[in-house]
Amino acid sequence: MPLANQAQAQEKKKYTIALIPGLTTDAFYITMHKGAKAAADALGAELVFQGAPEFNPVQQVPVLNAIIGRKPDAILIAPTDKGQLVGPLKKAVDSGIPVITVDTFIGDGHYQTGTGDADFPLSYIASDNILGGEIAAKALAKAIGDKGKVYVSNVKPNISTTDQREQGFKQEMKKHPDITVMETQFNDDDANKAASQFQAMYARTPDLAGVFGANLFSATGAANGVKQANAKGKVRVVAFDAPTSMIDDIKAGNIDIAIAQHPAEIGFYGVVTAYAHLTGQSVPPLIGTGFTVIDKSNIDDPKVKKFIYSD
């Protein structure tokens, strides 16, 4: 076929790209979906959005298998475990479907290296979560006057993004000798559990100065715990992620600072990267997106407000 005809045939093909979020009900992934849809519409691709209601590999793997059965041209996925999703995603690649991970990763997140059993995805597109944890630590250190006891409220071990946020937070806090980082509290992504953990921690640590909520429910749970313990103003809360529901908490002072990711960018670049690969272009194995630090002083600024996640 002449090159011109090949190009025309390629232009006429409508690619189907599937996006499997960590869970469907989180404003972060809803916003990511909107960015992905904008890119798909601009490129003339079909976007399939399907996921589980909870951030759980046991629920995500059947969704992935169902998507593989539909034979899309590419899969974008936020893996819910960096080890348990390796085998199921290898099945997709073995069946001829290229895989790109968004927000979270498998293995160590270093792809296309020719080493290990989890380097087969084409690209990882996400915030730099270690940097995000460092930014959160700097913000919390400043808020508590660079001294006191703090802890991390986290989901559970072995989730790539929240592991890295905690890592970055602790790395930065080593530079603040008058701040003591206490034992991490794992809440299984349950805001009520995070609130109870805060109350228990505050009861045995009356000089507690701050909490870093490594994801949405960790942060909102800690903030609720602060309210219930009448500790507002005494214990500062830094949140990772910034859905619409958090605006009132920031304005009321229940959450002091939110580190907003840019999930719409992640979804947009995910679809563009998949499309580039499908049309014969090379793609980078890592694409990073940015952060915006939000507090009471700037939350009504339109340039900042646009980074609040849709719900």
Give a verbal description of the structure.
- It is a single chain.
- The chain is α/β, with parallel strands linked by helices.
- Helices cover 42% and strands 19% of the residues.
- The chain has 11 helices and 13 strands.
- Strands 6, 7, 8, 9, 10, 11 and 13 form a 7-stranded mixed beta sheet that branches. Strands 2-1-3-4-5-12 form a 6-stranded parallel beta sheet, with helices on both faces.
- Helix 9 links the parallel strand 10 and strand 11.
- Helix 2 runs parallel beside helix 10 and helix 7 (191-204) packs across helix 8 (216-228).
- The radius of gyration is 21 Å and the shape is elongated.
- The N and C termini lie far apart (48 Å).
Helix and strand topology:
Elements lengths: L2 H10 L3 E5 L6 H17 L2 E4 L7 H14 L3 E4 L8 H9 L4 E4 L20 E5 L1 H15 L4 E7 L5 H14 L5 E3 L3 E2 L4 H14 L3 E6 L2 H13 L7 E5 L6 H6 L4 E5 L1 H16 L7 E4 L1 E5 L6 H4 L6
Parallel strand pairs: 1-2, 1-3, 3-4, 4-5, 5-12, 6-7, 6-8, 6-9, 9-10, 10-11
Antiparallel strand pairs: 11-13
